[in-house]
Write a structure and sequence with these properties.
With 116 residues, the protein is mostly beta strands. It contains no helices and eleven strands. The radius of gyration is 14 Å and the shape is globular. The N and C termini lie far apart (40 Å).
Amino acid sequence: QVQLVESGGGLVQAGGSLGLSCAASGADRSISVMGWHRQAPGKQRDLVASITSAGITDYADSVKGRFAISRDNAKNTVWLQMNSLKPEDTAVYYCVANILSRGTYWGQGTQVTVSS
């Protein structure tokens, strides 16, 4: 059973920075893609950033230049560094891991609140 455990998040003022981390356990093969999605109240869950095992990254346009995703394949861990945060970044952030031939797994979510 694959489990994703997130840490980080919290409350920060606009313009500030926060870091999120997510560690995956229980995977019996390599994790092809790890990433972060977020969901604000009343809105759908959207991709924030993703990274493949080869280090190829993808970002939502709204966070390009402000957020940075990284991972450690050996530790099955992914990080999201969030800089220049804006109130519209407020959401529950979910870690996600995709394992080929196994499926997609989600973390429990961590709240990020950016005050103006």
